[in-house]
Amino acid sequence: MKLTLKIWRQENAKTKGKLVTYKLSDLSPDTSFLEMLDVLNEQLATKGEPVVEFDHDCREGICGQCSLVINGKAHGPEEHYTTCQTHLRSFNDGDTITIEPFRANSFPVIRDLKVDRSAMDRIIQAGGYISSFTGMAPEANSMPIHHDIAESAFDSAACIGCGACVATCKNSSAALFVSAKIGHLVKLPQGQVERNERVLWMVNAHDDEGFGSCTNIGACAMVCPQEVQLLDITRMNYEYNRAVCLSAD
Amino acid sequence: MAVKKGLFKTSVGRKNLMAVTGLFIIFFLIIHLVGNLILVIPSTFFPIEFWGDVENTHDMYNAYSHFLVHFWPVTFVAWILYAAIIIHVIDALLITLQNRKSSGEKYQVTNNSTSIWYSRNMGVLGTVIGVFIVLHMAQFWLPYKVLKTEHDLYDLVLSTFKVWWFVLIYEIGIIALGFHLIHGIESAHRSLGIYPKKAMRILKYIALYFSLIMAILYAIIPIILYFK
Amino acid sequence: MALNAKIPEGPLKDKWQNYLAKTRIVNPANRKKLDVIVVGGGLSGGGAAASLAELGYNVKVFFFQDSARRSHSVAAQGGVNAAKNYKNDGDNVYRMFYDTIKGGDFRSREANVYRMAEVSTNLIDQMVAQGVPFGREYGGYLSNRSFGGVLVSRTFYARGQTGQQLLLATYQAMMKQIKVGKLTQYNRHEILDLVIVDGKARGVIARDLITGKIERHSAHAVVFGTGGFGKIFYLSTLAMNSNGSANWRAHKKGAYFANPSWTQIHPTALPQSGEHQSKLTLMSESLRNDGRIWVPKNIDEKRAPGDIPDEDRDYYLERRYPAFGNLVPRDVASRAAKERMDAGYGIGPLKNAVYLDFKTAIERLGEDTIKERYGNLFTMYEKITAINAYKEPMKISPAAHFSMGGLWVDYELQTTIPGLFAVGEANFADHGANRLGANSLLQASVDGNFILPNTISNYLADDIRTGKIPTDTPEFDEAEKSVKDQVAKLLAIKGTMPVDQIHRRLGKIMFKEVAMSRNEKGMIWAIEEIKKLRKEFWENAAIPGNENGPNSELEKAGRLADYLEIAELMAVDALDRKESCGAHFREDYQTPEGEAMRDDENYMYSSAWEWQQGEDWKLHKEPLEFTEVKPTVRSYK
Q1: Least Cα separation, residue B6 to chain A (angstroms)
Q2: Edge-to-edge strand list for the sheet holding C406-407
Q3: Interface contact flag, A8 B108, Cβ < 8 Å
Q4: Which of C330, C340, C435, C586 is catalytic?
Q5: Which pLDDT tens digit goes with each residue over B168-203?
Q6: ipTM for the complex?
Q7: Shortest CA distance to C51 belongs to which of A133, B10, B100, B195?
Q8: B203: chain A residues, CB-CB within 8 Å
Q9: What domains can you pick out in chain C, each with its CATH number?
Q10: Per DSSP, what are the bridge partners of residue A114?
Q11: Residue A110: which of C281, C449, C550 has the nearest Cβ?
């Protein structure tokens, strides 16, 4: 396959970036998208030019580190894929592909296609956990949890924290990410004790980090590699309203 | 620890406000529609026993209008409505500004295959509706209720809709309203989040069919009056 | 230095409790005077960081990812073992201990393995309390599945993403400690050297991968939860940036490296399909619960797999190992696959794969059950290969996966450098020559959460009066200088051969001669090739850009420079061990039936290699004593 790539190159968050065009040939359709970038980078390195910086790690769709917007779509043309699972078979020979970083004000560009997503860490720090210190736990089977509830909690817990929801949202809202964690913990009996504080703290942290308001467009759930549901956002809103009415302070 | 920021200062809170005001406006829209459907009742239906001495559409519509303007509880609710509209608009502006700020640098290439156009363009649709509301109020509400220069509202309405481009403007406003409603109804309920999971599953269809019915019924009024 | 494993007194089953009863601990008021550096934010490092911070120590955690939630523990799929005996199938701590010892082919340290089995039950309690949504029965109680190498069901799972869920629980515990101010995280930081002051590990030199700045950090103790170095094979199931550099730099400062050549080759990964491939995605071993592995009986089979009738299929694992069938341990399954492929029965265009077939299971259990058990794995398979595995069998192939070897540690998880501890895959003791499935998550978690916090206090108890460790000392100066020199040296090469290409060539040498089956001639050849490649790297590697900012090629080059040395030690170690055990299979030491031939007389020890400054190694032997079990020929027939 032959491809023309237009790749976003940017020195750092303070400088302006631009699209730079590269051409690649002799690619196999079974090559993954990131492997194609490897090929490009090897060519650049051979010429002594700085390579295209991009985030990637596990390359099997679970770590959530890859963060490219390909032809305007977070993670690439296929729905519910990560970038690393995207293969060239999803493109046609001769295509021109534009590659940009995940964009949001809260995701400043580090270089080229690498962005800083530590804002998402800080949201979890605000309350996305169950405070159970090592050694405190009771016998695991002392608290039966219905099969369906465990499965449903898993559906939310599956979030890989990649940030595609933010990247694809026209409001740059991280509602799907926040609500996935809230959904995961609130569905389980273990998560009940901190239920009210968690949602209040996390929503506040979400706003403080500068993410936008969710307007229920639903594009986030369409690109989510783990198929986290829009219903989680609805549940988060419920939990928030409930907490505002019920929390003690 | 002060964790409550006030219901309307957070991203979720602001959306609550949009939802509550929006739903109130929808409630008004239903009443407004029912009232105005009087306009399309053929005069051959009169006299209707139940309403006593009303003999034609003209009288009935004017009686209805008179009632609205002079019955104080309606006036009271009207003030809430004005407030709701204004809050809805201001809140929308705040949310839009915040979201513009949040989204940062624009993408060079956009792909909108993951969402529907009207859900992304609520602001644009809302602006069209806003302009329409101003025009609509200037035409009827202002002379009839505020300035009291017009006393026969039925005649005013009928004469207005004899102008084809007025009809066209109204149809545009109503189409914008229809699309605004499809997303607005679903979004408002999602923002409030106070419904069971099963209701959320059928919400999309309720929103679609409700909006469709509202828009069609609103839309036929100017057209029927044009040909009347 | 003679190796002292510091195994506590008493009968095997009492050793850990005896240790806990007698070990020194630090008073809560003193803990806040003590700093600990943890390298690695995964299950072992993150678990250690969170647990130590909960205890009140001041903890700094370093990792190269942008968030600790991306550590490669996230990719573990199948499950985590624990001797809960929820299935009433005769499981207990002893049986789990025995399975692990046997699975490791009697090359692990008895006391460590027993302790791992003993605390395994606490781990499940802990993870459930932290909100891990483990698979459940309809009655609400925890569900189990079975894994290779055992006859009971003791594996707890959260669909096919168990590692992710355990890691997220650990990550969340860390985030909680960051919020309360006991833990500081340094993301996108790579550890490039260990600083030793007066013979003790007292700090690290880190490179900020964003600014390129070289930083000094001091502490009273350093914990490595740095994971494995299987990426040395280039094509592996590991993450692209997983590396052995921190371990290696510590090794060069005096930490012994134990059993470096023992690398687990996982039988169920996706086969390589092309030259530019960077990664072999793992398909969880749990698939072997319901999948059947086979190759065609006819060497020139042309039919589609679905059209090949049962009588023309060779279910070679069921044929060779009727007792365990498709659930033999990983090393056995990998080798059996290699045997078929070498004999020419491999499938796929490169003849480098075997079939993993779910047809029987789908007929028996229905597609829905299979979907619930492995749905995400099937989806993942389809995303990568565009093949629907509900309709036709998966193609799988062995791939480098786990490093059983690592930094030598004693019972307290302390390396030969006082104050340097190693947890999880970074250390060596628990898995012997072959790791059983679902023991990796277990070991990483219990090391970090339950064992290290109790053993590190014994070391830190001496430091309550030490005060802050200054970073403006000659030791830090020297370490920082050597790191800066190496960075400068790498950037000065300005060659034309991309780093990945050299890495790929290293991987090929390693996979050919120092992987599933090894022989003396091959390894001598490999050592020569590695040396040549190392020379070529330092003469001709293409590393563009500079050190004052993000530079992924520079990062990769630094890691490869270390791999090129680790590779040699792996070959040296494999050459030294003239027996076959577990994953270490020497063609020159096998039974007539082609099974591994152990030599307990001469090789009942762990090899711990000491770096000699002349770039050579000195072997120290830690003899393995088995008091409770009698080493037998490991048979799964």
Answers
A1: 8
A2: C406-407, C257-258, C605-612, C616-623
A3: yes
A4: C330
A5: 999 999 999 999 999 999 999 999 998 888 888 899
A6: 0.97
A7: A133
A8: none
A9: 266-400 (3.90.700.10), 474-609 (1.20.58.100)
A10: A111
A11: C550
